[in-house]
Design brief:
This protein is α+β, with helices and mostly antiparallel strands. It has three domains: 145 residues, PAS domain (Beta-Lactamase); 70 residues, Orthogonal Bundle (Helix Hairpins); 145 residues, 2-Layer Sandwich (Heat Shock Protein 90), CATH 3.30.565. 55% of the residues lie in helices and 17% in strands. It is built from ten helices and twelve strands. Strands 2-1-5-4-3 form a five-stranded antiparallel beta sheet, sandwiched between helices. Strand 9 and strand 10 form a beta hairpin. The longest helix has 53 residues. The radius of gyration is 51 Å and the shape is rod-shaped. The structure holds adenosine-5'-diphosphate. The site of adenosine-5'-diphosphate has 23 residues, from helix 8 and helix 10.
């Protein structure tokens, strides 16, 4: 970042210096050219005045002086009568030269072009004399270039000094800008008072830190709960086994004891299975394979699997709906529907009923499970989705509940972008909706 800022600062400064240099060079050239034109015109007005006073012989007099300015005298037909250079080309007809034409017509004329005679960029200025002849003065731009080049060389020197100065300035300024960022306290982002522009980033960091803390707390709580939940059945198993080992159990009670050990071991297995399911749902990088699932068929299978459990509890089960294809993860959808239906039986009353409805609604595919069971008190309706939370711990344990079922449902819904809605009234029943 430091290098990037430094580099971009330098690029901006160099670009500014170079463009300023180019603009100044062009302006200086234009100014010098203009100055030269003015000088030539001034010179010309002196010569014209001198000729008017002392006649054309004045031209021969200044010829001896051999000034840088070339003078040409042309008559009305374009015939060259005099030229201070006096070579072969100079005496060709000048009638068509732009400045001569203009001088003959308007009294004066000027032109800037490459000279046919000497092949150099030349400035011409012509004036019509009183007797009708035209006197022309010209000067090559040769003298201009050394002046401009000299000035440019001087400017290059200044530009180089400015760029070197800018390099050190950019370095110093970048370090000054970066320093507060390097000194940020990332543990407590909101306590930093650096740049206002960083506030959204710092707020985001604070939120992330909080989220991280929450996840860490949740993990700690979950581990503590898991240990506790695992310890209870294991303590029972260990206790029964110890009694059996000591030979304290009469042979007729052996079966009862073995049954208790078996029941606790089965509870342990269910618990571990649920923990594995939850941690799998927690893993962000598992790529679940989605497929077309018929939710109606899935509910029917679930009802069949739970038929024995329902019969044992004297609960009547009913499935209403129509085939409904949904693109999702079969295993997770099955877990979700199974857990909700199982709860509807587990927390039902003797002679109660469970109604399962599957169908398509305006909001999307929907699965509804309604029971006439014991219901959930209002203040605990949110909490039942927390891990290991049970409304009535002893009742849940009695029915083989782990307190993880609805957490699995919640995670499954998140996985599918679905919503879980719950309506429940104690002693009346519960209605659970999965809206996909
Ligand atoms: P569990 O394994 O104990 O059933 P869940 O996570 O599935 O755990 O449910 C959490 C708690 O929510 C249950 O212990 C129970 O008290 C309550 N609960 C869930 N479903 C129902 C329902 N249909 N009727 C009444 N209470 C329910």
């Amino acid at each position: 970042m430091r290098n990037k800022i430094q580099k971009s600062m330098l690029v901006v400064i160099c670009a500014t210096v170079v463009s300023a240099f180019i603009i100044m060079a062009v302006l200086f050239y234009a100014y010098s050219l203009n100055h030269m034109k003015k000088e030539l015109k001034q010179e010309m007005s002196y010569i014209v005045t001198a000729i008017e006073i002392s006649g054309l012989t004045y031209l021969d007099d200044i010829d001896a002086a051999r000034v840088e300015t070339r003078l040409t005298l042309i008559d009305e037909t374009g015939e060259v009568l005099y030229d201070s250079r006096e070579d072969d080309y100079t005496f060709q007809s000048h009638a068509e030269r732009e400045e001569i034409e203009s001088a003959l017509k308007n009294g004066s004329g000027e032109a800037l072009r490459s000279s046919e005679t000497i092949g150099k960029m030349t400035y011409y200025y012509a004036v019509k004399l009183k007797d009708g002849m035209v006197l022309r003065a010209s000067k090559t731009l040769d003298g201009l270039m050394p002046v401009v080049l000299g000035a440019m060389l001087f400017m290059v020197g200044i530009a180089t000094i400015m760029i070197v100065f800018a390099y050190f300035l950019a370095k110093w300024q970048t370090a000054r800008l970066i320093q507060p960022i390097n000194e940020l306290d990332l543990e407590h982002p909101l306590e930093n008072t650096v740049y206002e522009e960083l506030t959204p980033l710092l707020v985001k960091m604070e939120q992330q830190n909080q989220a991280k803390d929450e996840v860490a707390d949740m993990r700690k709580e979950f581990s503590a709960n898991v240990s506790h939940e695992l310890k209870t059945p294991l303590t029972s198993i260990s206790g029964y086994a110890e009694i059996m080992k000591g030979g304290l159990v009469p042979p007729e009670d052996m079966i009862r004891f073995s049954e208790k050990i078996h029941k606790e071991a089965s509870r342990l297995i269910v618990l571990i299975e649920d923990i594995i399911k939850l941690s799998k749902l927690d893993e962000a990088d598992i790529a679940w394979e989605k497929e077309n699932v018929d939710l109606y068929e899935m509910c029917m299978e679930t009802c069949n699997r739970l038929a024995f459990q329902a019969e044992k509890k004297n609960v009547h089960m009913e499935l209403i709906g129509e085939p409904l294809i949904y693109f999702g993860v079969r295993q997770i959808l099955d877990e979700m529907i199974y857990n909700i239906c199982e709860n509807a039986i587990k927390y039902n009353v003797d002679g109660g009923s469970v109604m399962v409805w599957v169908g398509s609604t305006l909001q999307g595919p929907k699965v509804v499970v309604e029971d006439t069971g014991i219901g959930i008190p209002k203040d605990q309706q949110e909490r039942v989705f927390e891990r290991f939370y049970r409304v009535d711990k002893s009742h849940s344990k009695e029915t083989g509940g782990t307190g993880l079922g609805l957490s699995i449902v919640k995670h499954g819904a998140i996985c599918h972008g679905a919503e879980i809605r719950m309506e429940s009234e104690p002693l009346k029943g519960t209605r659970m909706e999965i809206v996909f």
